[in-house]
């Protein structure tokens, strides 16, 4: 029984390129030294740090064992780099690592690093870039948060789109999942019977009351919380006020200033009545007490601006946010206890509390493993399914070529050359075309020569490649001027041969030539980067999750897929029926063969009444 976890996917079906260019921006504190790489003095054997080239036993500079190969390999595997991208010689690339301030950068934000990478790819003429999006924000999967609030992942800000979905996920299904969750009404979570209000409902209700605009959907709610975090951080930067002020609209709309004063005075009377108990009064309780005196909209406006108002006895209204109940609370305090007005209107949470509430909402609404249950069940199932699909989509891709479709150059011939091997099936290789630029007087022979050179330089398997003919034009002389044949720009097929057959097999694909068959119940037919295992009987691969094995569980020592189990059960039933026949009467079987099928594919081992090859 075998299994794999693939961490990078994108251009694995392409032939092996002869060169790969790694672009790395290391952490600021790592400098240029080969940190952690130890060398030994050739004279005394003492260990030297990478920054020292002189040993104490020598009086001058020495030559030490400077084999830095291990150090280079460690750099390629290091996940703490601010940026690590690799570009293949055929123009296809992978973004492997990107770490902004939350990932360890002291000065550069993730957006700054991504801007640099995007400009670098444009300057280098990169054709396509793939990325495995496992980015996190505040400890949450940021691709999910960003998709809900913006309609696309964070990398989508730079043109990255759906590349390949795990577990048979299609682009259409992914977009439908985004739309389903984004448009889910918050009322689905708020109105759940007559029971006590849950913590989730309290959080939703609080931020609805804090917002100037109605929060009706999941998208509205998460967008508002993310904007609050941004606002708090912006206002707490050096040179700004220490106290974040959540501005609210001063437009009264259908209410007059007299209406506001009247309602606020009535609210203060309620607080005066409760002042003897010295307890905080929740915003919800005040709204309940005043529900017959004013409209909900007017009450919300008055409560937002209640902090700092004076009562008739000279006391001041003070408000604060209670993180336990996720509610704003009010009470009256003597003006002498209120210093500089700082505690008058703290009806907003701190940045830490907003992040905490955001995590709670994420776990309750967006993460399938911790999602709260609610009614109707059909809506919950739709939300659960959509959230699972968002988590399953990690592979995104940007195509730079549409942005670089160059206009015809009157001083050169530009041809996209599609190479085929004449002794191989047409679809045997997933070979991208190469752009060949020739002078205006170039001939067919020049095209063959440049195409041969281009593919020899790019791919390892084409080191002995030789262009032979243009199948679309039949037999033509090599001396014919190319411009009269194809014009200044075109896409053209070229057939040729590789004299060295060994390289054709060895370097045929980046992922190697191991043969496997993927046939999973989710519809996947190829490796998608998720954990898989193979059936010990038929050898077919499928996802561990689809086989009923949780990703956190260990792989069983023995695994037989459901197809083989059903086949064995059918054969066993036929054998049992045959053995139980007596004089034409079929005796009832006491076998538990049904249990073999019911156990499913997640069992660690099975016992069958016949041998398994």
From TrEMBL:
Q: Does the keyword Zinc apply?
A: yes
Keywords for the protein's UniProt record, in alphabetical order: Metal-binding, Transcription, Transcription regulation, Zinc, Zinc-finger
Q: Where are the transmembrane segments?
A: none
> Which segments constitute the Zinc finger PHD-type domain?
519-565
What Pfam families does UniProt report for this protein, alphabetically?
Answer: PHD, Ubiquitin_At1g33420, WHD_plant_repro
Give the taxonomic lineage as stored in the record.
Eukaryota, Viridiplantae, Streptophyta, Embryophyta, Tracheophyta
What PANTHER family does this protein's entry cite?
A: PHD FINGER PLANT-LIKE PROTEIN (PTHR46201:SF6), PHD FINGER PROTEIN MALE MEIOCYTE DEATH 1-RELATED (PTHR46201)
Q: Name one GO molecular function term.
A: zinc ion binding
Q: Which organism is it from?
A: Carya illinoinensis
Q: Which PROSITE patterns match?
A: ZF_PHD_1 (PS01359)
Which InterPro entries did the record assign?
Answer: MS1-like_ubiquitin (IPR057765), WHD_PTC1 (IPR059080), Zinc_finger_PHD-type_CS (IPR019786), Znf_MS1-like (IPR058054), Znf_PHD (IPR001965), Znf_PHD-finger (IPR019787)
Q: What name has this protein been given in UniProt?
A: Zinc finger PHD-type domain-containing protein
